[in-house]
Design a protein that fits this description.
UDP-n-acetylglucosamine1-carboxyvinyl-transferase, Chain; 2 domains; 12 helices; globular; binds shikimate-3-phosphate
Amino acid sequence: MDFKVKAGSKLTGEVQLPGDKSISHRSIMCAALAEGTSVINGFLNSEDCLATLDAFSKMGVSIDRTDNKVVVQGVGLRGLKKPDSDLYLGNSGTSMRLMSGILAGQNFSTVLTGDHSLSARPMERVVTPLNLMGSNISTNLEGKPPIRIESSSGLNSLSYELPIASAQIKSCLMFAGLYTSSPVTIIEQLQTRNHTELMFKKFGIAVEVKEVGGAIEIKVIPPESFLATEINVPSDFSSAAFLILAALITPESDITLKNVGINPTRTALLEVLQDMGANIKVSNIIKEYEPSADLQIKSSKLTGIELNPELIPNLIDELPILFVAASLAEGKTKIRGAEELRAKESDRLKAMSNSLNKLGVSFAEYPDGIDIKGLNQEFNSSNSGLPYKAAVINSFDDHRIAMASAIACTRARNESNIEGVDNVITSFPNFLDTCRRLGMEIYST
Ligand code: S3P
């Protein structure tokens, strides 16, 4: 499937976006290992989260799903059953890396596989520390999937400093820490998203988090068992980011996104855009185990910035759309310390450079970042000064490249095409409908 995109007029309206992907994955994993029945409201019915759900069903967990309400009959920490076949996790790195931690502690062996993109992603980052805990896990010769996990008779505890700022590695080890006899400690120099910490606490699993000399130490105290609970999943900030940008760059727009997750380890994009001049108001804050709020966004003239590299883990998934913001801003934007972008569903530095090039933007790509010369888009309602050239853009089969490029093309002078957008359903299943409800002209072909 491709997207056909035309420049539209102002965006207006109020929408509720689908649930948070990271929280939805973790809710299924914890609910499956709990004792009793958990209810998950607002679950994200995307391909990635359904891959996690399906994998636990194959390990004997009874899971009922009606729209975005999921009821999970937990089997307890030691109740999973050996699946009849390999567990296929599609495009989902989060499923594969977090589940490796859980499966490392089971008394049966498993094999985890994925699609073409997932099969090309680095897995030694989780396999190395898990093997330090006494598990027996292997990948192919290049450290890529399939992951083969041998049966375990118990894991050793570990104190491990993350070599890469990655919530997936941290969370993998936190899950493995449920199967040790003494605590696992993970040290991170830059704080990454803390959804696993918050989800563990919600399920009553003891987690101690403290700051030590500028680093963060997360200690998981292994429980004997833990009880089921009810989880409300807020909307995904990373999905909201595409619509935030669309409203900012389309003249005379004014939109509201309801009940969006605003966990501070995820929302650095808000601060950065506000520093660039964005008019975004946060209201109706709900302080649950995961905070959420309504976001009102009005079109705004943006100015380029030099991004603080320490913010990168807290806006890693939003960088493609931040590149779009930078390309329309006045002045230059400099981004460094973002080499992890090359290890995502595609090489996102290369993929976004390709999109920006097609749209007529000047930039310089670096191994760990990019400099972008903003086109200084004019703001007038007639669309007479549209900044980008019309383009045919390759999504590199990456959902976030497809969506970021589609939003950019709503400011192109003529109809544009984004090729190969099927993967959008891995994270944002009703992206097209939502865009059109707000007034964008994006169609599938
Ligand atoms: C995720 C962590 C991030 C992010 C991914 C989801 C998670 O990956 O890019 O989309 O749910 O823990 P890394 O931990 O590899 O940075």
